[in-house]
Amino acid sequence: MAESHPGKATPAQQEVVNVLYLAGLGDGTVRLADGQIAHVAGALPGETVRIEETRKGTWQLQDVIESSPERVSPPCPLAESCGGCSLQHIRPEALLAWKTERVIRALHNAGFETVPQAATFQVAPHSRRRADLAVKRGASSMLIGLHGRNTKTIVDMSTCLVLDPHILSLLPAFRTVLHSLQAIRREASLHINLLDTGADILLVTDAPLTTADRIRLTQMAEDHAIPRISWASASNPEATETATQRAPVTQSIAGHEVTPPPGGFLQTSAASEQAIQAAVLAALPEKMTRRASVVELYAGCGTLTFALAQRCQVSAYEGHGPACNALKAGTGTARITTHHRDLTRQPLMAKEFAQAAAVILDPPHAGAKNQMEQIARGLPTQVIYVSCNPTALSKDTALLAKAGYRLHAVTVIDQFLWSAETETVCDFRRESSRRSRSGPSRSGL
Fold first, then answer.
1. What does the angle CA 38 – CA 43 – CA 48 come to, to the nearest 5 degrees?
2. Where are the beta strands (DSSP E) in 364-404?
3. Which has the least CB within 10 A, 150, 169, 206, 364?
């Protein structure tokens, strides 16, 4: 029962409430004494908690009176301050279950009454191979880390249970070297991709690199066996240039060597990349001729393209020029045709899906509204949708539900440990194709 405090609320106002469920960002949802709904970070369903209003409409957890059996002590000492992990207080198994329920609910909301049991996969700690970090100049060193939740304060990343240890091991050297650069007046950003050939670095600064800066970066690359350090100005972050390169930069994807562009997109871990590839391949028809052709949208550097080419012909579309160039350079086969095309401004038209055995898409976080409208009109036999956002997934696939598709298989991949982010692979098929399609094998996930 909530405590009642008549009169105007003050920052010190407190209530005792029951937590109903987790909202989309992983906050506990509660009903206040006045009937209003509020979201409280750190609270879990089923708990009784004391909360305090820190400012109008914003409530903070003060005390857990009755805890959930799913609650654990956060394993990272930075959990309370770092904005990277918001759900370290819940058991990993329970977190995966919540993410799966969230995806199922999103698909029900899209209009799919029947949702098959989801296959699931969760990555291990210390496996993340990508880091996008904020940098701020301090008195004697640089702060390098993530912003605290809902603040501009950078929490210095002294430890991390998510990142690959090799990335973490580079940060002390970067604190020292970046502090010496004239190119950083106040702040910068540091993007690290851990490739097969080593750490690939993109540094974005608020001032130009000087000759002395380039010499320091070159020496750091030598000292720490970094193949390439690229640079861009914060005023034009897309215009990257090579600050120093001492060795080739390559990454193997499904047996093909590619050179990702500076700061290029990769799936967060090797294990999650393989899990996504396996789920997509399992969704394809078991009997598929090598001459069969699929359309892949938002192909990136080829995360799915090269795996798909083992089974069929692939027409791959990507809007980011450097990524498309990397994909094209790494193909080495006539089974892949690459197309540079902005699918937001120039989506493929409905008629362009007529001959495709399947359409596979892995859109950005916001989804693919314009492109999905054309897919739903084109009525391809099969649509395999890879999503990193359940909300966008629900909106986009509602068009497929209205067009008569059924949901054949779902795989939920937790590659964003201790966060609310969720990866999903969904296999949609038209009702008319039911007899000609066989169910996917979901072994190994």
1. 90
2. 382-387
3. 150
Query: Which has the closest alpha carbon to 86: 130, 28, 31?
Result: 28
Phi and psi of 310, rounded to 5°?
-70, -20
Binding residue per annotation — 93?
Answer: no
What is the reported pLDDT for 233?
Answer: 97
388 in catalytic set: yes
318 is annotated as contributing to ligand binding: yes
Q: Identify whether the C-beta of residue 394 lies closer than 8 Å to the C-beta of residue 101.
A: no
What's the pLDDT tens digit per position in 82-95? 989 999 999 999 99
With a CB cutoff of 8 Å and minimum separation 6, the contacts of 70 are 44, 90, 91, 94
Among the listed residues 301, 312, 324, 388, the single catalytic one is 388
Judge if 277 and 407 occupy the same domain. Answer: yes
121-155 pLDDT, tens digit each:
999 999 999 999 999 998 888 999 999 988 889 99
- Residue-number span of the structural domain to which 226 is assigned: 130-251
If asked whether residues 101 and 220 sit together in one domain, one would say no
Give the total number of structural domains in the chain: 3
The strand ranges marked E within 148-291 are: 154-156, 187-195, 198-205, 228-233, 236-245, 251-253, 256-258
| 199 and 339 assigned to the same domain | no
What DSSP element (H or E) covers 246? none
* Residue 317 labeled ligand binder: no
Domain identity same for 107 and 139: no
CATH of the domain at 19: 2.40.50.140
Please indicate if the annotation marks 206 as binding a ligand: no
- Among the three residues 251, 282, 300, which one is the final residue of a domain in this structure? 251
Q: Is the pLDDT of residue 420 over 60?
A: yes
